[in-house]
Amino acid sequence: MNPRERVEEALRLRQPDRVPVHPHISRWAAKLTGSTVQDYYLKPEVMVQSQKTAWRLLGHEVVYIGSDITVEAQALGCQSSFPPQGPPMVVKPVLEDAARLPSLKPPKPRENRRMSLVLEALRRAEEEFRKSELMICGDVVGPLTLAGYLRGAENLVRDVARSSSHLPALLELATETIVSYAEEQVESGAHMVLINDPMASGSFVSPEHYRLYAAPYQRRIASCLRELGAYTMLHICGNTSERLGLMAETGIHALSLDAKVDLQFAKETVGKKVCIAGNLDPVRVLMEGKPEDVKREAAGAIEKAGGGGGFILMPGCGVPEPVPAENLKAMMDAVRAHGLYR
User: Which of 231, 244, 260, 166 is CA-nearest to residue 200?
Assistant: First the structure.
C-alpha cells in the first residue's frame, strides 16, 4: 500500500496496512534547510524543498503545503506580519467599521500575490512528490476565523452575541473567498484541504452559535471540495468535545483534534462518521518531552483511536519550531512499531 492509499483508506473509515501519519509540520521544516520563516511562506521553492527534506528525514504520508491562515485575510485587505518565530499574524483588520463590508469582494486566487504563491507551491509539490505517491495537503482558514480577522476578534464575538444584521453577509464573503481559494488549491495539486477554524472553538462561541454561524459555512466548503474529489479535514483549537457531533455533520472526512480532546471519547462519539486524527500535545510532549515520552504517547493514541482503522496519527496542532527532530522521529518509530493492522 503506498502512502496516499494508506491515508485514503483511513479517511474512508477503513483499515489500511498501518496507521498513517500527518505530522502537521510547516515552518518547522524551514530550519532543516536553513531558511527563515518569511522565506518559507513567500518562496514556493523554499517551502517545497523544506517539506522534501522533512519527508526524507521522517518518512510520513502527508505533505503539508500552506499553513499560513492569514493569506485570505491579507488578500481581502488586512495587514499581516511575519514574526521571526511563530506563525504569520494579522495585525490590522480591514472591517473594524462594518459599514465598509459592501466594498469588499472575494479576491481571485490566481491574481492575488499571496494566494498565487501557495498555488505555485502546490504545483511544485505535486510534481516533486508524484512518484513517491504521497498525500498533498493544502489548507484554508475557516469562515468564522476569517470573519474574525476581517472584523477583529472582539468585534466578531460581539457580532455573534448580538446576532448582528451584517453577520450573514460577512460570513458569506468569507466563505466565497475560502471556497474559490480551496478549489484552486485542488486544481493546483492538493488531494486534501485542511480547514483551520480556531475561532469556532468554545473559547469564542457556544455550541449553539457554532451551529448557527460556523457549521453551515464549513459544510459548504466541504461540499464543494467533495464535488471536486478532494478530501477535507477540519481543525478547531481547544477542547471541542461538546461540539464533536456538530463538527462531524459538516461533511468533512476527518477531524484533527487538539490535545485537550480525549481520543477514545472522540472515537466512540463520532468515529463511525468521520476519521479521527490526532492528537499528540505539540508543546508538552513533542517540544518538552523526550523521545521515549513521544513513543509512549503515540502508542497510547493508537490504542485509543486506532482500532478498526479510520485513524490518522497527528500532533494536536502545528509543530512549533523548537521541537527536536528526534521527537518527530520517535513519533514515526512508534507508529511503525504499534500501528500495524493485522
Answer: 244
